[in-house]
Amino acid sequence: MTYCVGLKLNAGLVLLSDTRTNAGLDNIACYRKMYFFEEPGERVVVVMTAGSLSVTQTTLARLDEAITDEMADETTSIMLAPTMLQVATIIGDTLSRTRREIIEQCRDLTQQASASMIVAGQRKGGDMRMFLIYPEGNFIEATEDTPFLQIGEHKYGKPILDRVVTPATSLADAQKAVLLSMDSTLRSNLSVGMPLDLAIIEKDACAITARRRILDGDADFMRMSAAWSAALRESFVKVTI
């Protein structure tokens, strides 16, 4: 399992993913879940993944291959697509096709082959957009009413996002929100784990503004986690019924 979350705000995009992959109690590994496709100043696309590694890695390999193909055009390459909507369509189609092929290959096994993705970014002259792509290839988009999207083990980290995140949230506060959302998930589900990958894309930058890997034992993350726990305990004591 994994946990990935993306925020689409007036000021930009904030994206966070863990790196744990769990294929059983004795088979836990670390795999990157956040991938970057970037031509600074022209376009930036970030893809976060959850689900079967065979599906997600094959899908991403095919997207990479399509970008470098001599015959690539706006219908096949996410780096040539004229809009973020078309980018999401290409990725959705590739994910759906890959999933169907792997399911067919494993039809006699009990192995599951499912995956979902969050796709976010902006091209020069276009709007920032963020989509959640389902295993079947269809997708939904983040809106002003719902400015965040999650995939994977999302239930533990959702309450704080519901309470504090709006389109007007600053990028600094948004980073706190996604990190605390992840902290809640880390505490409640062992299938989500460090290190974490954090990326910031400021509006109209069309490039990764900031990128950070947070390792296990990171002093700043531990300090924030401890302060949040203390604040919750203090607030709990003050509440009356």
Key attributes of the depicted protein:
single chain; 241 residues; alpha+beta; Glutamine Phosphoribosylpyrophosphate, subunit 1, domain 1; five-stranded antiparallel beta sheet; 12 strands; 28% strand; globular
Offer a concise description of the structure.
With 241 residues, this protein is α+β, with helices and mostly antiparallel strands. Helices cover 34% and strands 28% of the residues. The N and C termini lie far apart (37 Å).
Q: Give the helix level as a range of percent.
A: 25-40%
CATH homologous superfamily label: Aminohydrolase, N-terminal nucleophile (Ntn) domain
CATH architecture annotation: 4-Layer Sandwich
Largest sheet, in brief, is: 5 strands, antiparallel
Q: Do you know the CATH topology?
A: Glutamine Phosphoribosylpyrophosphate, subunit 1, domain 1
H/E element sequence: EEEEEEHHEEEEHHEEH
| Distance between the ends | 37 Å
Strand order of the largest sheet: 10-1-2-11-12
* Shape annotation: globular
The amount of beta strand, in percent, is 25-35%
Rg to the nearest angstrom? 18 Å
Organism: Paracoccus siganidrum
Protein name: Peptidase
InterPro entries: Ntn_hydrolases_N, UCP009120_prtse
